[in-house]
Amino acid sequence: ISGYSLVVQARDSGTPPLSSSVTVNVDISDVNDNSPVFTPANYTAVIQENKPVGTSILQLVVTDKDSFHNGPPFTFTILTGNEEEEFTLDPNGVLRSAVIFKHMVSTEYVLCVQAKDSGKPQQVSHTYVQVRVIEESIHKPTAIPLEIFIVTMEDDFPGGVIGKIHATDQDVYDVLTYTLKSEQKSLFKVNSHDGKIIALGGLDNGKYILNVSVSDGRFQVPIDVVVHVEQLLQEMLQNTVTIRFENVSPEDFVGLHMHGFRRTLRNAVLSQKQDSLHIISIQPVAGSSQLDMLFAVQMHSGGFYKPAFLIQKLTNARRHLENVIRISAILEKNCSRLDCQEQHCEQSLSIDSHSLMTYSTARISFVCPRFYRNVRCMC
Questions:
Q1: Domain named Cadherin: which ranges (predicted)?
Q2: 3-state SS track over 131-195
């Protein structure tokens, strides 16, 4: 307990008695009676041979139960095991290599490390660090090619995470890092540690081929990453049709069904080969396992087919479409919750271009805006 706060009252013997109170604060000053504590108590680490001088091997973690002026900053010292000065230990407790290790020279080092706190008198504790030197990488990393589809409103792409590169390495202790060629960093970024791809704002319509590579420190492997950006037109939203799927997650649809269903859907609804199918968005139906896919079809001449025409084609081809994935409903209007009776049901669709949904799998990523469907009864 670092302190007490007492309220003391004095009362006299008069009639009536009078009194007053005062607060007395008692602070308990800390004595440096706790030694630093290593977590865990002892350490094991590995380093591959031929790693450059200064390679980080281990981060020491130390805590102290004393107050802050009797605890950190800690002073770290290697007491034994570093007679040839193969290691350095920085003030933050990071153990680094001071030489280029060779597996044939030595396979193991045991260091005794001391941590000293900042109290007076100082308290110390010790830990042992076992460092194994392993052979350098013999396997190249392997990475899965990634194709990313981004759907956004005209000139209104806010940016964000659009996918993730999946890479592996058969060398157990290899640490993979990802890089992007510098000339593309004005539009995209790649997280060097986890391979997440970030698009910056303002992407134009078109196709982008990213020069991404993954490295294990010895081998560097290129990764095929292609980004397709499609900008929506306002006219599309007035001519959309929704297909509702049963029991499918967005990620499963993107990874397992989207390519096949797009091809089957094109065959079903396109009147001419030059017509264009636009998948605008996919979005889970709240409170269910259903999934809505919003699409429109643009004529070669530039206009869009009306929803009633598309629904007729979809109804005729529904059996073929369900060979790919089970369809729950084909929606032009979604007025099932309204009883409009003799009135007309009107539906409006709005797109939130700043609320992007990213559905990412190992091979395909689909980024689309969130949409809202509003329905009302009209006279």
A1: 4-38, 39-143, 154-245
A2: EEEECCCCCCCEECCEEEEEEEECCCCCCEEEEECCEECCCCCCCCEEEECHHHCCCEEECCCCC
3-state secondary structure (DSSP) of residue 13: coil
Which superfamily does 37-134 belong to?
Cadherins (2.60.40.60)
End-to-end CA, the chain: 73
- Would you place residue 255 in the very low, low, confident or very high pLDDT band (cuts 50, 70, 90)? very high
Region 26-53 average pLDDT: 93
Q: Would you tell me how many other CB atoms lie within 10 Å of the CB of residue 35?
A: 19
Cα–Cα distance, 60 to 113 (Å, whole number): 10
- Sequence length of the chain is 379
Domain segments of the chain as ranges = 37-134
